[in-house]
Protein backbone atom coordinates (compact mmCIF):
# COMPACT_ATOMS: atom_id res chain seq x y z
CA UNK A 1 0.00 0.00 0.00
CA UNK A 2 1.28 3.46 -0.75
CA UNK A 3 1.93 5.87 2.08
CA UNK A 4 -0.36 8.84 2.53
CA UNK A 5 0.40 11.66 0.13
CA UNK A 6 3.09 13.96 1.45
CA UNK A 7 2.96 17.72 1.31
CA UNK A 8 6.17 18.29 -0.62
CA UNK A 9 5.78 19.69 -4.05
CA UNK A 10 7.23 17.68 -6.89
CA UNK A 11 9.74 19.97 -8.51
CA UNK A 12 10.94 17.32 -10.93
CA UNK A 13 7.61 16.74 -12.59
CA UNK A 14 8.19 17.72 -16.16
CA UNK A 15 4.80 18.11 -17.81
CA UNK A 16 5.55 15.32 -20.29
CA UNK A 17 2.41 13.44 -19.52
CA UNK A 18 -0.64 12.75 -21.62
CA UNK A 19 -1.92 14.26 -24.80
CA UNK A 20 -2.96 17.77 -25.51
CA UNK A 21 -6.53 18.09 -24.23
CA UNK A 22 -9.04 17.96 -27.01
CA UNK A 23 -6.73 16.22 -29.48
CA UNK A 24 -8.15 12.88 -30.62
CA UNK A 25 -5.92 9.82 -30.57
CA UNK A 26 -4.46 9.20 -34.04
CA UNK A 27 -6.33 5.89 -34.43
CA UNK A 28 -9.61 7.55 -33.59
CA UNK A 29 -8.80 10.37 -35.98
CA UNK A 30 -8.72 7.71 -38.67
CA UNK A 31 -12.37 7.17 -37.91
CA UNK A 32 -12.41 3.50 -36.88
CA UNK A 33 -13.14 3.14 -33.15
CA UNK A 34 -12.81 -0.67 -33.27
CA UNK A 35 -9.37 -0.44 -34.91
CA UNK A 36 -8.31 1.98 -32.18
CA UNK A 37 -8.87 -0.82 -29.64
CA UNK A 38 -6.15 -2.88 -31.32
CA UNK A 39 -5.87 -6.54 -32.32
CA UNK A 40 -7.36 -7.89 -29.06
CA UNK A 41 -10.80 -6.48 -29.84
CA UNK A 42 -13.29 -8.21 -32.16
CA UNK A 43 -16.73 -7.16 -33.29
CA UNK A 44 -19.16 -9.89 -32.28
CA UNK A 45 -22.79 -10.82 -31.83
CA UNK A 46 -23.84 -12.49 -28.60
CA UNK A 47 -25.92 -15.55 -29.29
CA UNK A 48 -29.65 -15.22 -29.26
CA UNK A 49 -31.33 -15.96 -25.96
CA UNK A 50 -34.32 -14.69 -24.04
CA UNK A 51 -32.27 -12.18 -22.06
CA UNK A 52 -29.85 -11.17 -24.79
CA UNK A 53 -31.58 -10.95 -28.14
CA UNK A 54 -28.52 -11.07 -30.34
CA UNK A 55 -26.71 -8.01 -28.96
CA UNK A 56 -23.82 -6.68 -31.06
CA UNK A 57 -20.71 -5.51 -29.26
CA UNK A 58 -17.00 -6.02 -28.72
CA UNK A 59 -15.21 -9.14 -27.50
CA UNK A 60 -11.96 -8.89 -25.55
CA UNK A 61 -9.84 -11.49 -23.76
CA UNK A 62 -10.55 -12.00 -20.04
CA UNK A 63 -9.72 -8.96 -17.85
CA UNK A 64 -7.18 -9.27 -15.03
CA UNK A 65 -6.56 -7.07 -11.99
CA UNK A 66 -2.88 -7.77 -11.30
CA UNK A 67 -2.86 -6.38 -7.74
CA UNK A 68 -5.56 -7.18 -5.18
CA UNK A 69 -5.73 -8.30 -1.55
CA UNK A 70 -8.49 -10.86 -0.97
CA UNK A 71 -7.67 -10.85 2.78
CA UNK A 72 -9.02 -7.29 2.84
CA UNK A 73 -11.79 -7.36 0.27
CA UNK A 74 -13.06 -10.94 0.59
CA UNK A 75 -12.73 -13.85 -1.81
CA UNK A 76 -16.18 -13.29 -3.32
CA UNK A 77 -15.94 -9.52 -3.79
CA UNK A 78 -15.26 -9.73 -7.51
CA UNK A 79 -17.53 -12.68 -8.28
CA UNK A 80 -20.14 -10.63 -10.16
CA UNK A 81 -17.80 -8.27 -11.97
CA UNK A 82 -16.05 -8.22 -15.35
CA UNK A 83 -12.73 -9.14 -13.70
CA UNK A 84 -12.02 -12.77 -14.67
CA UNK A 85 -8.59 -13.07 -13.03
CA UNK A 86 -6.78 -11.49 -10.10
CA UNK A 87 -3.32 -11.64 -8.61
CA UNK A 88 -3.35 -11.56 -4.83
CA UNK A 89 -0.20 -9.72 -3.77
CA UNK A 90 -0.08 -10.45 -0.06
CA UNK A 91 -2.08 -12.74 2.21
CA UNK A 92 -1.58 -15.32 4.98
CA UNK A 93 -0.76 -18.80 3.69
CA UNK A 94 -3.99 -20.28 5.11
CA UNK A 95 -5.94 -17.95 2.85
CA UNK A 96 -3.78 -18.99 -0.10
CA UNK A 97 -4.40 -22.66 0.59
CA UNK A 98 -8.16 -22.06 0.92
CA UNK A 99 -8.21 -19.92 -2.21
CA UNK A 100 -6.51 -22.60 -4.27
CA UNK A 101 -9.41 -24.93 -3.46
CA UNK A 102 -12.04 -22.48 -4.62
CA UNK A 103 -13.79 -22.81 -7.98
CA UNK A 104 -15.36 -20.09 -10.06
CA UNK A 105 -14.40 -16.61 -11.15
CA UNK A 106 -12.26 -14.71 -10.82
CA UNK A 107 -9.36 -17.14 -11.10
CA UNK A 108 -6.72 -16.23 -8.52
CA UNK A 109 -2.95 -16.37 -8.49
CA UNK A 110 -1.30 -15.77 -5.12
CA UNK A 111 1.96 -14.28 -3.92
CA UNK A 112 1.52 -15.63 -0.40
CA UNK A 113 3.00 -13.68 2.49
CA UNK A 114 5.01 -10.48 2.15
CA UNK A 115 8.70 -11.32 2.61
CA UNK A 116 10.38 -8.50 4.49
CA UNK A 117 13.38 -7.57 6.62
CA UNK A 118 13.00 -7.95 10.42
CA UNK A 119 10.67 -5.14 11.53
CA UNK A 120 10.11 -4.08 7.92
CA UNK A 121 6.91 -3.08 6.13
CA UNK A 122 4.12 -4.20 6.49
CA UNK A 123 4.81 -5.70 9.95
CA UNK A 124 2.60 -3.98 12.50
CA UNK A 125 0.36 -2.22 9.98
CA UNK A 126 -3.25 -2.27 11.20
CA UNK A 127 -4.46 -3.79 7.91
CA UNK A 128 -1.84 -6.56 7.87
CA UNK A 129 -3.20 -9.58 9.80
CA UNK A 130 -0.93 -11.99 11.64
CA UNK A 131 0.76 -14.29 9.18
CA UNK A 132 0.57 -11.92 6.22
CA UNK A 133 4.24 -10.91 6.52
CA UNK A 134 7.29 -13.09 7.04
CA UNK A 135 10.47 -11.53 8.38
CA UNK A 136 13.73 -12.97 7.04
CA UNK A 137 17.11 -12.38 8.67
CA UNK A 138 19.95 -11.17 6.46
CA UNK A 139 21.84 -13.86 4.56
CA UNK A 140 25.28 -14.16 6.18
CA UNK A 141 28.67 -15.14 4.82
CA UNK A 142 29.02 -16.21 1.23
CA UNK A 143 25.48 -17.58 1.10
CA UNK A 144 26.74 -20.98 -0.03
CA UNK A 145 25.82 -23.14 2.94
CA UNK A 146 25.15 -26.75 2.05
CA UNK A 147 22.07 -26.76 4.29
CA UNK A 148 18.77 -25.35 3.08
CA UNK A 149 18.86 -21.76 4.24
CA UNK A 150 16.05 -19.69 5.69
CA UNK A 151 15.44 -17.92 2.39
CA UNK A 152 15.04 -21.15 0.42
CA UNK A 153 12.79 -22.61 3.10
CA UNK A 154 10.56 -19.52 3.09
CA UNK A 155 10.25 -19.47 -0.69
CA UNK A 156 9.56 -23.22 -0.83
CA UNK A 157 6.88 -22.86 1.80
CA UNK A 158 5.10 -20.15 -0.22
CA UNK A 159 5.09 -22.43 -3.24
CA UNK A 160 3.91 -25.47 -1.29
CA UNK A 161 0.86 -23.53 -0.10
CA UNK A 162 0.04 -22.59 -3.70
CA UNK A 163 1.83 -19.32 -4.35
CA UNK A 164 2.87 -18.78 -7.96
CA UNK A 165 4.53 -15.42 -7.32
CA UNK A 166 6.91 -14.21 -4.57
CA UNK A 167 6.31 -10.77 -3.06
CA UNK A 168 9.02 -8.74 -1.34
CA UNK A 169 8.52 -5.47 0.52
CA UNK A 170 11.17 -2.81 -0.07
CA UNK A 171 9.75 0.17 1.82
CA UNK A 172 12.62 2.29 3.12
CA UNK A 173 10.25 5.06 4.25
CA UNK A 174 8.80 3.11 7.17
CA UNK A 175 11.36 0.51 8.21
CA UNK A 176 14.36 -1.67 7.37
CA UNK A 177 14.66 -3.32 3.96
CA UNK A 178 16.62 -6.31 2.66
CA UNK A 179 20.28 -5.79 1.87
CA UNK A 180 21.37 -6.64 -1.63
CA UNK A 181 22.79 -10.06 -0.71
CA UNK A 182 19.56 -11.18 0.92
CA UNK A 183 17.41 -9.82 -1.89
CA UNK A 184 19.63 -11.59 -4.43
CA UNK A 185 19.16 -14.85 -2.50
CA UNK A 186 15.37 -14.45 -2.53
CA UNK A 187 15.29 -13.72 -6.26
CA UNK A 188 17.57 -16.69 -6.96
CA UNK A 189 15.47 -19.04 -4.79
CA UNK A 190 12.25 -17.89 -6.49
CA UNK A 191 13.65 -18.17 -10.00
CA UNK A 192 15.04 -21.67 -9.28
CA UNK A 193 11.44 -22.68 -8.57
CA UNK A 194 10.03 -20.89 -11.61
CA UNK A 195 8.40 -18.12 -9.56
CA UNK A 196 8.56 -14.45 -10.59
CA UNK A 197 9.37 -11.87 -7.90
CA UNK A 198 7.17 -8.81 -7.32
CA UNK A 199 8.45 -5.93 -5.20
CA UNK A 200 6.64 -3.18 -3.38
CA UNK A 201 9.10 -0.29 -3.80
CA UNK A 202 8.70 2.87 -1.74
CA UNK A 203 11.34 5.36 -0.65
CA UNK A 204 14.54 6.68 -2.15
CA UNK A 205 16.65 4.18 -4.07
CA UNK A 206 14.19 1.31 -3.82
CA UNK A 207 13.41 1.15 -7.55
CA UNK A 208 17.15 0.94 -8.23
CA UNK A 209 17.57 -1.84 -5.65
CA UNK A 210 14.74 -3.81 -7.29
CA UNK A 211 16.17 -3.36 -10.79
CA UNK A 212 19.71 -4.22 -9.65
CA UNK A 213 18.48 -7.43 -8.02
CA UNK A 214 16.53 -8.59 -11.06
CA UNK A 215 13.03 -8.20 -9.60
CA UNK A 216 10.54 -9.14 -12.31
CA UNK A 217 7.59 -6.87 -11.51
CA UNK A 218 6.94 -3.74 -9.45
CA UNK A 219 3.69 -3.98 -7.50
CA UNK A 220 3.14 -0.25 -7.86
CA UNK A 221 4.31 2.31 -10.35
CA UNK A 222 7.04 4.08 -8.34
CA UNK A 223 5.39 7.07 -6.68
CA UNK A 224 7.86 8.39 -4.10
CA UNK A 225 10.79 9.07 -6.41
CA UNK A 226 11.31 10.06 -10.02
CA UNK A 227 12.87 7.14 -11.89
CA UNK A 228 15.56 8.52 -14.18
CA UNK A 229 15.61 7.55 -17.84
CA UNK A 230 18.79 5.46 -17.56
CA UNK A 231 17.29 3.34 -14.78
CA UNK A 232 14.02 3.07 -16.72
CA UNK A 233 15.96 1.81 -19.72
CA UNK A 234 17.64 -0.87 -17.59
CA UNK A 235 14.31 -1.97 -16.13
CA UNK A 236 12.80 -2.24 -19.60
CA UNK A 237 15.83 -4.06 -21.06
CA UNK A 238 15.49 -6.59 -18.23
CA UNK A 239 11.82 -7.13 -19.13
CA UNK A 240 10.51 -5.70 -15.87
CA UNK A 241 6.76 -5.11 -15.77
CA UNK A 242 5.04 -2.43 -13.70
CA UNK A 243 1.59 -2.84 -12.15
CA UNK A 244 -0.13 0.52 -12.48
CA UNK A 245 -2.03 1.26 -9.18
CA UNK A 246 -2.15 4.99 -9.93
CA UNK A 247 -5.55 5.55 -8.32
CA UNK A 248 -4.44 4.52 -4.81
CA UNK A 249 -1.59 7.03 -4.72
CA UNK A 250 -4.20 9.59 -3.61
CA UNK A 251 -7.62 8.11 -4.51
CA UNK A 252 -8.01 10.25 -7.58
CA UNK A 253 -7.15 13.56 -5.88
CA UNK A 254 -4.24 15.61 -7.20
CA UNK A 255 -1.02 14.91 -5.29
CA UNK A 256 2.75 14.91 -5.81
CA UNK A 257 2.75 11.10 -5.49
CA UNK A 258 0.16 10.77 -8.25
CA UNK A 259 2.05 13.21 -10.48
CA UNK A 260 5.31 11.31 -9.97
CA UNK A 261 3.63 7.97 -10.67
CA UNK A 262 1.98 9.21 -13.88
CA UNK A 263 5.23 10.80 -15.04
CA UNK A 264 7.20 7.60 -14.31
CA UNK A 265 4.59 5.41 -16.00
CA UNK A 266 4.36 7.70 -19.03
CA UNK A 267 8.11 7.51 -19.63
CA UNK A 268 8.23 3.76 -18.87
CA UNK A 269 5.46 3.10 -21.38
CA UNK A 270 6.83 5.47 -24.01
CA UNK A 271 10.21 3.72 -23.83
CA UNK A 272 8.62 0.30 -24.36
CA UNK A 273 7.99 -0.89 -20.80
CA UNK A 274 5.26 -3.46 -20.19
CA UNK A 275 2.40 -2.16 -18.06
CA UNK A 276 -0.03 -4.38 -16.15
CA UNK A 277 -3.38 -3.00 -15.00
CA UNK A 278 -3.75 -3.27 -11.23
CA UNK A 279 -5.67 -1.45 -8.53
CA UNK A 280 -4.40 -2.67 -5.12
CA UNK A 281 -8.05 -3.51 -4.40
CA UNK A 282 -8.55 -3.72 -0.65
CA UNK A 283 -6.40 -0.65 -0.08
CA UNK A 284 -8.98 2.02 0.80
CA UNK A 285 -12.30 2.56 -0.92
CA UNK A 286 -12.49 1.50 -4.56
CA UNK A 287 -15.26 0.30 -6.84
CA UNK A 288 -15.39 -3.46 -7.38
CA UNK A 289 -14.59 -4.56 -10.91
CA UNK A 290 -12.76 -2.40 -13.42
CA UNK A 291 -11.94 0.93 -11.74
CA UNK A 292 -12.76 3.65 -14.31
CA UNK A 293 -10.37 6.03 -12.56
CA UNK A 294 -7.46 3.58 -12.91
CA UNK A 295 -8.26 3.28 -16.63
CA UNK A 296 -8.41 7.06 -16.93
CA UNK A 297 -5.03 7.34 -15.19
CA UNK A 298 -3.49 4.98 -17.76
CA UNK A 299 -4.90 7.18 -20.53
CA UNK A 300 -3.43 10.20 -18.72
CA UNK A 301 -0.04 8.44 -18.76
CA UNK A 302 -0.25 8.32 -22.55
CA UNK A 303 -1.44 4.75 -23.09
CA UNK A 304 -3.59 4.43 -26.20
CA UNK A 305 -6.82 2.47 -25.91
CA UNK A 306 -5.10 -0.59 -27.38
CA UNK A 307 -2.30 -0.29 -24.80
CA UNK A 308 -4.81 -0.06 -21.95
CA UNK A 309 -6.50 -3.24 -23.20
CA UNK A 310 -3.11 -4.98 -23.40
CA UNK A 311 -2.45 -4.03 -19.76
CA UNK A 312 -5.93 -5.24 -18.75
CA UNK A 313 -5.77 -8.58 -20.54
CA UNK A 314 -2.16 -9.66 -19.95
CA UNK A 315 -2.43 -13.15 -18.43
CA UNK A 316 0.65 -12.61 -16.22
CA UNK A 317 1.74 -14.49 -14.14
CA UNK A 318 0.19 -17.16 -16.34
CA UNK A 319 1.77 -17.74 -19.71
CA UNK A 320 -1.47 -18.34 -21.54
CA UNK A 321 -5.03 -17.16 -21.11
CA UNK A 322 -8.12 -19.31 -21.03
CA UNK A 323 -10.15 -19.36 -24.24
CA UNK A 324 -13.27 -20.72 -22.55
CA UNK A 325 -14.51 -17.28 -21.52
CA UNK A 326 -14.35 -13.82 -23.01
CA UNK A 327 -15.16 -10.26 -22.08
CA UNK A 328 -18.20 -8.85 -23.87
CA UNK A 329 -18.96 -5.13 -24.02
CA UNK A 330 -22.35 -4.45 -25.64
CA UNK A 331 -22.91 -1.52 -27.93
CA UNK A 332 -20.54 0.47 -30.12
CA UNK A 333 -16.84 0.81 -29.22
CA UNK A 334 -15.71 4.03 -27.51
CA UNK A 335 -15.23 7.03 -29.77
CA UNK A 336 -12.25 8.43 -27.86
CA UNK A 337 -9.67 7.23 -25.30
CA UNK A 338 -11.39 9.47 -22.77
CA UNK A 339 -14.54 7.40 -23.30
CA UNK A 340 -12.75 4.07 -22.74
CA UNK A 341 -13.21 4.00 -18.96
CA UNK A 342 -16.96 4.59 -19.16
CA UNK A 343 -17.30 2.03 -21.97
CA UNK A 344 -15.54 -0.65 -19.93
CA UNK A 345 -18.06 -0.27 -17.10
CA UNK A 346 -20.50 -2.09 -19.42
CA UNK A 347 -18.24 -5.15 -19.69
CA UNK A 348 -19.21 -8.63 -18.53
CA UNK A 349 -17.87 -12.19 -18.73
CA UNK A 350 -19.53 -14.61 -21.14
CA UNK A 351 -18.76 -18.12 -22.41
CA UNK A 352 -16.61 -17.69 -25.50
CA UNK A 353 -18.90 -20.06 -27.42
CA UNK A 354 -21.75 -17.52 -27.03
CA UNK A 355 -19.94 -15.03 -29.27
CA UNK A 356 -20.06 -15.06 -33.04
CA UNK A 357 -17.53 -13.00 -35.00
CA UNK A 358 -19.01 -10.40 -37.33
ZN1 LIG B 1 -1.00 -4.16 -2.24
Can you give a write-up of this model?
- Mean pLDDT is 90; it is low at 1-22.
- 28% of the residues lie in helices and 18% in strands.
- The strands form 3 sheets. The protein has a 7-stranded parallel beta sheet. A 5-stranded antiparallel beta sheet has the order 14-13-2-1-15, with no helix packed on it.
- The chain folds into 2 domains: 24-61 and 322-358, no CATH class; 63-317, Alpha-Beta Barrel (TIM Barrel).
- With 358 residues, the chain is an alpha/beta fold.
- The longest helix is centred in the C-terminal third of the chain and has 15 residues, at 256-270.
- Bound molecules: zinc ion.
The small-molecule ligands in this entry are: zinc ion
Give the neighbour order of strands across the main sheet: 7-6-8-9-10-11-12
How many structural domains can be distinguished in the coordinates?
2
Strand content: 15-25%
Looking at the structure, what is the overall shape? globular
Count of extended strands: 15
- For this structure, the CATH topology of the largest domain is TIM Barrel
User: Count the helices. How many?
Assistant: 12
- CATH superfamily (homologous) name of the largest domain: Metal-dependent hydrolases
Rg, alpha carbons: 20 Å
Low-confidence stretches: 1-22
**Helical proportion?**
25-40%
CATH class of the largest domain, please? Answer: Alpha Beta
The CATH architecture classification of the largest domain is: Alpha-Beta Barrel
On the 0 to 100 scale, the average pLDDT is 90
> What can be said about the biggest beta sheet?
7 strands, parallel
Task: Give the SSE order as H and E letters.
Answer: HHEEEHEHEEEHEHEHEHEHEHHEHEE
Structural class: alpha/beta
Query: Gap between N and C termini, in Å?
Result: 43 Å
Amino acid sequence: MPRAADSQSSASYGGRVGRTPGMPHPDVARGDPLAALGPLARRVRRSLSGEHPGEVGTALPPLVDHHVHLMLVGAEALADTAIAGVVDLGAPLELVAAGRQRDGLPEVDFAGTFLTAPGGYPVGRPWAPAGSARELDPVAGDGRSALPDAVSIAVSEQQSFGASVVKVALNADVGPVFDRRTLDAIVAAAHERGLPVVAHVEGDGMTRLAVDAGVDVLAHTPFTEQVDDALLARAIAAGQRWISTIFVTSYGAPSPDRDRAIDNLARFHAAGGRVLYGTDLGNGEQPLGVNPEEVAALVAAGLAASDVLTALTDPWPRRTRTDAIATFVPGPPPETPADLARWLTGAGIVPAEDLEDL
